Amino acid sequence: MPPIHETVRRWARVLLLMWCGVASPAEAQVAATAADVPGAAAPAPTEPPLKEVSVAETAFVRGAPLPDWADLLPLPPPTTTAGQRAIAVRLEDTHLLVADKPVQLVNAAQQVLDAAALGQIGQVALHFIPQYQRLLLHKVALLRGGQTIDHTASVPVRFLQRETGLEHGIYSGVITASLLLPDVRVGDTLMLQYSIEGANPIFGGRYVNGLSWQRAVPVQLRRVTLNAPAQRRIRWKWVGDGAPATLEPVETSTNGMRRLRFEERDVAAVDAEPMMPRGTFALRWLQFSEFADWADVARWADALFPSIDPLPPELAPVIDRLRQLPSPAEQASQALQWVQSEVRYYSVALGESSHRPHAPAEVLRNRYGDCKDKSLLLMRMLQTLGIPARAVLASLSAPQAAGKLLASPLAFDHVIVQARIDGRDYVLDPTRLGQRGPLDRMGQGLEEARVLVVDANETKALATVRSPNRAEIFRSELNETFRLDAFGEDGELETEQHWTGLQAEMLRLTLARADPARLERIVLAGAERRYPGITLLGSPALSDDLQRNRITLRTRFKVPKLANADRGNWVLRFAAPNMQGSFASPPSTTRSFPLVLPAFPMTIAYNAEVRWPASVSAIIDPLTLRIGNDAFNAEVTRSFRGNVSRASLKFEALTGSVPARDVAAMLDDMKKLERSLGGAMVVAAGQIKGGGVLGIGRKTMQDTLQARLQSTIERTGKAMAGGQLAGDDLAQALCLRAEAELGLARLDDALKDAQEAVRAAPSLAAVWVCQGNASWARGDFNAADAEFGKALVLGQSPAEAYYRRGHARFYAGRLEQAADDFGRAATERPAGAVSQPSGDRLYPLLWQAWTLQRLGRPWPAPLAALAVAEPQGAWPRPALAMFAGQMTPQQLLEQIARKEGDERELALTEGWFYIGQYWLNQGRPDQAREAFEQARAKGVTTYIEHTAAGFELQRLAARP
């Protein structure tokens, strides 16, 4: 923990701040927290190398007398509140004078209780800017027992300055006065009294400041006194994300001066927690500002970014070239890229140049500038092109913190540009690199940030940066395909990964410095962590789509022993690498402060497909688990059709900050998400044709399916025969047997078991679905309608209940109600969930599509857009494209023919049924009849399409 003067000087730095380089108040508070507590929200920045310099004699005064206006507290006697801490803070007494030359006077004392902390009070570092400030050292002394050792006149003082050009190209003019105390011992108390006079003239004499109040150790006595002329309106506010402050100041007035005094004894220590979001104020602090509101700050800043600054003649050819571009959006994109790449980042921020940008002519002449310089240049270029543009104040260190603060310029540490084009506001950062393509595809580093648009006429409050196409520009997608030709052998892995927006831009900069050999090493290193011994097959294929601002990497690997035998089964392990780092895992879920959600604002998609040996045959249609809360929405879909198993994850982060009270529940949902993805694909012994008990002698998928259904009936019958099952357990066993009986066309038996299940557990939603399935298969559609409705009321998954009720209503002839149910089945999801439907959501959309066509009604806009989005995408998208006129029935069959083995057979069952519906809508019953007959011939008796094709054939046979 730093000595008290160290923490105070961090807060004194608030007065020294500049845009584009030094901390904002939020960063200063977080930095102070991090210095005291390992693992806090943001670590204190590493100090760059220093060199010794000289300062003017008037800039530093040793042994200066205390001012008459200050009323310093005496040192209180030590207490035992320090506990086991290495430092005991006995006094923090700060006095502020609001005047033409403001003063901050610090009167502080802290005691060292452990040898490990001797260095923290033995070396004092005080920071100031001689260009407009003066450092007055009043007293430096060590108290040892009853002895006072005064070092004020003798302590060596060295003046140190940051090396020019270091720390990201920043030269701020900050001087460090370093005081090295001799002979510091355990038990000593350091007394320190000093003042900093002066303030940055850029604020026009307006007063702004911020002072820490709490620390990571107890403070025996804390006091802040503000002295200001009565006519000056200085506003104050407690800022902190911990327990709310109730302390009110004592206000007095004397001789035209207003005094506010804040005082508290035994200020409790605050333990900042790991993994807090940026801008979390763990330690309470006190803010002062003379600005009335954010509109007042905007008016102040407006004068710093004049729209009348002329562009230098040297820019005329650039402007002429930009004018030749066909649209304002392209002009703005090219102007932004020109400033980003042609003007390097470098900051010389002395005096008013901490906040006032240099003129465009000077910036162009030097070919360097910081954020405000580059922003003014870009703003003027856009305005010259006829594009409305304004400066915007933001905070990189704490993007959302301004919303917690009093209006003040010190809420910000960065400047960017807002451009209005075709009715949309674009927030552009001219300090970034690697950005390419259209404006609406560029990365946004300040998503959800609270910013201030610099406009003296329009700005009344803070604005929020929010991209309307967030899901497109904050998207990570990874597709992995595993191939295994024979069990126990090596396999192959093909990956296709897409990065967009910010990720693409950062990767673009990295790749510019990476040759093909280095790229191979990087790719292989990541893969080896998952699959030891993996090797590359060929070279990675990299493509950069500048128009979409998307980088794609395709790779092929050989994986040793891709699947492993486990008790008669075969297991393949997989993971979602692009989900790594999306969640914070705190050491405890009991927290006082919010938890960061690192994934925000990303949408992450992961798809894994395993092509098992041809001997594998399984029928597990898409099943989706949806998890939704205030922090994220996710969908995990798994399926196993023929010899192809699939798992997909769609994840959307909704916020970057999880309140402390919600952390435990959110982490529980995260664990559910991990469990649902599973991390393994398994082939059971019974899913292998020609092997395992059920597969002996059977050559076709249909034979295997029939055997499994019969085995299910026998196993459930034995379980129930023992008489040990009752209630929900008995009902579930009966329903399991009923579903198998339906697959074997034993409809009466199925209905009987379903009815028994209802009697055993009438309040269980699943049993009503079971009975509805039996009624529907028997053609009793009205009964099925009521039974699926009952399941919905009892809490059955809305997606499933609406889907099945839609089938009942469709064949009962209530097409409008059916179309409505299919639409609900496809769209029923938690608020804000991932927008692209998963595989199981596409099936109800298909039924809705042809039902609406049969009614002569137009499709809803989302359905129409989805139908044409990916005609050749994952199944059953091609079928939806066929109903949209994007594909013919023959082309659909060609798409299915590209599949392999049993997966092709299963898709043909569905495909022929969809083609039959297509021909019915076209008024061609003969072609429809042929298609339905083909669907039935596949013999996949467990499919809805198989049973529904039988209904359609009955209807066609009944036609005159």
Provide key terms for this protein:
Immunoglobulin-like, disordered N terminus, nine-stranded mixed sheet, 960 residues, Jelly Rolls, single chain, alpha+beta, C8orf32 fold, 27 helices
Secondary structure topology:
Blueprint: H1 4-12, H2 25-36, E1 50-52, E2 60-62, E3 87-97, E4 103-112, H3 118-122, E5 123-128, E6 134-144, E7 147-150, E8 157-162, H4 166-169, E9 170-171, E10 175-180, E11 189-197, E12 208-212, E13 219-229, E14 235-239, E15 250-254, E16 257-267, E17 285-289, H5 294-302, H6 316-323, H7 328-342, E18 344-345, E19 347-348, H8 360-366, E20 368-369, H9 371-384, E21 389-394, E22 414-421, E23 424-428, E24 450-453, E25 463-464, H10 470-473, E26 475-483, E27 491-500, H11 501-511, H12 516-530, E28 535-536, E29 541-545, E30 550-559, E31 564-566, E32 569-573, E33 595-596, E34 603-611, E35 618-628, E36 632-642, E37 644-653, E38 657-658, H13 663-677, E39 680-683, H14 701-721, H15 727-743, H16 747-760, H17 765-777, H18 781-793, H19 798-811, H20 815-827, H21 839-855, H22 861-869, H23 877-883, H24 889-897, H25 901-921, H26 925-937, H27 944-957
Parallel strand pairs: 2-6, 3-13, 9-19, 18-20, 26-34
Antiparallel strand pairs: 1-8, 3-4, 4-11, 5-10, 6-7, 6-11, 8-10, 12-17, 13-16, 14-17, 15-16, 21-22, 21-24, 22-23, 24-25, 26-27, 27-30, 28-30, 29-30, 31-32, 32-39, 33-38, 34-37, 35-36, 36-37
Helix pairs in contact: 7-9, 14-15, 15-16, 15-17, 16-17, 17-18, 17-19, 18-19, 19-20, 19-21, 20-21, 21-23, 21-25, 22-23, 24-25, 25-26, 25-27, 26-27
